[in-house]
Specification:
With 413 residues, this protein is an alpha/beta fold. The chain has two domains: 237 residues, no CATH class; 152 residues, abc type-2 transporter like fold. 63% of the residues lie in helices and 8% in strands. It contains 15 helices and five strands. Strands 2-1-3-4-5 form a five-stranded mixed beta sheet. Strand 1, helix 3 and strand 2 form a beta-alpha-beta unit. Helix 10 packs across helix 11 and helix 11 packs parallel to helix 15.
């Protein structure tokens, strides 16, 4: 322990003298959280919309107003020619176009079902899908209002119309209606010539748990904490060991009475402490910048974060044993470890949507389990009784990777 203590003093003194490293270690994570926290936002609103109104009637303008007043769309262009839609979509000035057919109001009053077309730019599939879902919700709500007005005009009581028209009245966001297959053409049906008894007396009252405002930032920020913790500790560990190789000081250390295990502990302990300091810094920044506070136990989050560090430090050490230069270590850690874990661990893309073979590969990624843990504690207030399987797998992975890395390092030493 005396030898390890002296070695730790040397490592901390070396870190303190490195003026460029300290800002990277302690200031960069806060800046990255600030940038990514605001930039990594999957919410879609104020979609640029073009309106092609061939009817230009009271009811058609009323439908357009419904789109604009919803807050999901903003009417950027209004014209009569369908040919201009391609031009504006290609130029990126609009994302969607609402096409209202001629005789829209006349057909509605005649009790006909009128198709309304929404054309969306499918280059961005996520935005296009959400735009179609938004339009489906708005049109259904508008159709329900027409049915209610028609029934009231026929002399139905308020209570009867509330029951008959409760089929579609929800203003839930498209993320609440996940799985909706709204197409590019949505029908608007008036009830003037329809049977009121055909309405289905079912009303949907959506309830969203854990993230009631459906803000993607609440989901992304805890994931960003996991990414920062992985990047900082893995890069620092891999570069620090390789730096000793490049400077020739690692050979000098090997001929001293310091044992390989003491050398490894002396190298890893400072970076693990830096990682835990970054955890507290990011937790505080997430609260101050975004108002995000873990719904569960902070102590449990810190303990499981320390277990996650076993994996990141072990992977960093393993990369260092496979690399000869700092450039090799950086590139290897980035392309062979960090990028696959970021893309395949469920940070932004659901694992359930991946091919089955890739889903099996994700079980070998420690970041997958840590994402479940940190988001479970942050959003759901989950405890160890719920997260014990992910915690156990994370611990097992950390022990195995760190053990392999230490064995390889001792063999090289």
């Amino acid at each position: 322990m005396s030898i390890i203590g002296h070695f730790l003093k040397k490592e901390f003194a070396q870190l303190r003298r490195d003026k460029k490293m300290l800002p990277i270690v302690f200031i960069a994570p806060i800046l990255q959280l600030l940038l990514l926290g605001y930039a990594a936002n999957l919410d879609v609103d104020m979609i640029p919309l073009a309106v092609v109104d061939h009817d230009n009637s009271v009811e058609s303008r009323r439908l357009v107003d419904k789109f604009v007043q919803s807050g999901y769309f903003k009417a950027e262009k209004r014209f009569q020619s369908l040919g201009l839609i391609d031009t504006y979509i290609d130029e990126g000035e609009i994302v969607a176009a609402l096409v209202i057919p001629p005789d829209f109001q006349t057909d509605l009053k005649g009790g006909k079902k009128v198709p309304v077309q929404l054309i969306a730019d499918g280059a961005d599939a996520n935005t296009a899908t959400i735009a179609l879902n938004y339009a489906d919700i708005i049109v259904r709500k508008f159709s329900a209002e027409l049915q209610l007005e028609s029934l009231q005009a026929q002399g139905w009581t308020t209570a009867s119309t509330e029951t008959a028209g409760s089929t579609v009245g929800s203003t839930a966001s498209p993320t609440e209606t996940a799985g909706s297959t709204a197409g590019s053409t949505v029908g608007v049906g008036a009830a003037a010539g329809s049977d009121a008894g055909a309405a289905i007396p079912i009303e949907v009252e959506p309830r969203v748990w854990y993230n009631p405002e459906l803000k993607s930032r609440n989901f992304m920020v805890p994931g960003i904490l996991a990414l920062l913790l992985m990047v900082i500790t893995m890069i620092l560990t891999s570069l620090a060991i390789v730096k000793e190789k490049e400077q020739g000081t690692l050979e000098h250390l090997n001929v001293t009475p310091i044992k390989p295990i003491q050398l490894i502990i002396g190298k890893l302990v400072p970076f693990s402490l830096i990682g835990m300091v970054d955890v507290f810094l990011v937790l505080g920044a997430a609260r101050l910048l975004f108002g995000l506070v873990p719904a569960g136990s902070i102590i449990l989050l810190v303990v499981l974060s320390a277990i996650f560090l076993l994996s990141t430090l072990g992977l960093g050490l393993l990369v260092s044993t496979l690399s000869r230069t700092q450039q090799q270590a950086m590139m290897s850690a980035l392309f062979f470890v960090m990028l696959p874990m970021i893309f395949l661990s469920g940070f932004a893309f659901p694992i359930e949507n991946m091919p089955r073979v890739i889903q099996y590969v994700t079980y070998a990624l420690p970041l997958r389990y840590y994402f479940v843990i940190i988001r479970g504690i942050y959003l759901k207030g989950a405890g160890l009784s719920t997260l014990w399987d992910e915690s156990l797998l994370l611990l097992a992975f950390g022990i195995i990777v760190l053990g392999i890395s230490i064995a390889r390092f001792r063999k090289q030493a």
